[in-house]
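Amino Acid Chain and Its Fold in Token Form
===========================================
Purpose: to set a sequence beside its fold so the mapping can be learned.
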Amino acid sequence: PEIDHIIFDVPDRMTRNDFDKLKIYTLIKEHGKTIHFSRTNKVFNKDSGSDDEFMLDIEVAVAKKMSNDISRKSQMGMLEKAEQGLYPSVAPLGYRNNLVTHLLDVDEATAPHIQRVFTLMATGRYSLSTLGDLLHQEGLRNKGGNRVGKSTLAYVLSRPIYYGAFVWKDKLYQGSHTPLISKELFDKVQDVLHGRHHPDRRGWNFPFNNLVVCGFCGCKVLGELKKRKYHYYHCTFSKGRHNGIGYLREDRLAVLFEEPVKAVTLPEDVADLAKDALREA
């Protein structure tokens, strides 16, 4: 309320769409603000006539058209670049934009990490979380210098730009940049990400894989290597993440298999109490 005057250079610096224009009119007519345009020395307030409002409407409409024309020309220019094999956007992790050649140059600092991401994921032995931990220890950082998250890793692993192609406006183009991986490796990673790959588990030494299901949701419980030497088991959360026990050490899980479990029939009320006790445990 203590601000009575708002200064803009010209109307297209104030707004280029009707929705924001109506909010400006609300400030003027309901809250008594005065709008100044410094370049033309025009003033618009609640006492301005209908002619002034009409002229302002026209100036905003012209600014909107100019904005739309610029946007359309920009989109056409980027589409033309894509058709020439030039990636028309900000370089992804592993590359950098060359402002002279307009090509993607390989970023020597991060490209080896990207290659390692694909190589490790293709084995089928790593979850995104484990892979993120490992690569963070090895020095991989995002462009802000922070840890690369699971969602970013999943996005990286699904982008064809790393084998030499890229998607623009829902169409696949062959790029002119240097690929970091082969198409074969990319396809193998897609199989892993979409559950179509079943790697050889003999070297993993996770003896309880596929033998146990989660007591909360019924999903599979699988092993995972932590700190390169500890074996833990956890729910795959295939039906969505839930509260409950996080990770279970292999030695604790092994105790359950030392002796056969005898099946018994319990009264319904006792069975419910037993389930509650097991969940709390």
Summary: The mean pLDDT is 81. The longest strand covers residues 221-226. Residues 50-83 form the longest helix (34 residues). The radius of gyration is 30 Å.
